[in-house]
């Protein structure tokens, strides 16, 4: 029997009083997910290793059965791999968000109030020294690559999406002793329409190797995804990556394109992984109503197609980690795991 694994990033969270003490998944109108739960099995568990924080890198690799000793410290190398950016063994790669600042505090981790075109143009105007290689990936996401040293590898990790509202003075302390990063940030501040922006480097990462999916399971696998971290995991594990034209890593993604790609890839692979990231993005923005609407869109545009057209297939729907739409942060706690075997004639 073939398998479709649907990872809905940041789907799960604790019950919310304003929703009648329900979670967003329980509150949303999801007739097809409800059918899968009714005909299958719904449980809860955690995926992040006990000595690590709950984030997509750790949790998705754990879901895929990768031993924690092979889980990289941070994700930037895998995002570089996804974007075909070469990283030498003596180099370090850092994520570099385009952030906004208001009243000396982190206002947003994702270039709020800027269009995709404005963010791209800002990245094209970044000033660097010869020691730093800057790469624009998509939207607010960028990477910088430079020579590895002990100071950079030991810098405190302060993810911007986990620290909205925090003092910028405290956030920038993470690399106050690293002159090359201080200068990079200082020279790349800018203002648009009265808003203050900067490029913020964080999460140092280095070259790493992960066991392949075939090594672990002796099965072929394809991945349908848009988020760079998931593409990077797929490439590192020698998983095929399906071509997509209109899908994004946010709530504006084309879910019908993704469902069609899953069904197409299933013809030639034993396992197909689909990753949907918009629930996590909405949660980080503290957009509860947007998260609920997107869950309903996942059900109508994606799960309906999978449920109606996959036969003799095991369908697994899982959240990698909790992301609270109230705090905007990843939280420790159980996540939803829904399993169902769709056989011919079973409706």
From TrEMBL:
The protein, known as = 2,3-bisphosphoglycerate-independent phosphoglycerate mutase
Please name the InterPro entries in this protein's record. Alkaline_phosphatase_core_sf, Metalloenzyme, Pglycerate_mutase_ApgM
* 4Fe-4S as UniProt keyword: no
Signal peptide start and end residues: none
Metalloenzyme domain segment(s):
1-343
Q: Write down the superkingdom of origin.
A: Bacteria
Could you tell me the keywords of this UniProt record?
Glycolysis, Isomerase
The pathway it acts in is:
Carbohydrate degradation
List the PANTHER family: 2,3-BISPHOSPHOGLYCERATE-INDEPENDENT PHOSPHOGLYCERATE MUTASE, COFACTOR-INDEPENDENT PHOSPHOGLYCERATE MUTASE
Q: What does this protein do?
A: Catalyzes the interconversion of 2-phosphoglycerate and 3-phosphoglycerate.
**What's a Pfam family in this record?**
PhosphMutase
Name the Gene Ontology biological process terms. glycolytic process
What family, per the record?
A: Belongs to the BPG-independent phosphoglycerate mutase family. A-PGAM subfamily.
GO MF terms held by the record: metal ion binding; phosphoglycerate mutase activity
Reactions it catalyzes: (2R)-2-phosphoglycerate = (2R)-3-phosphoglycerate
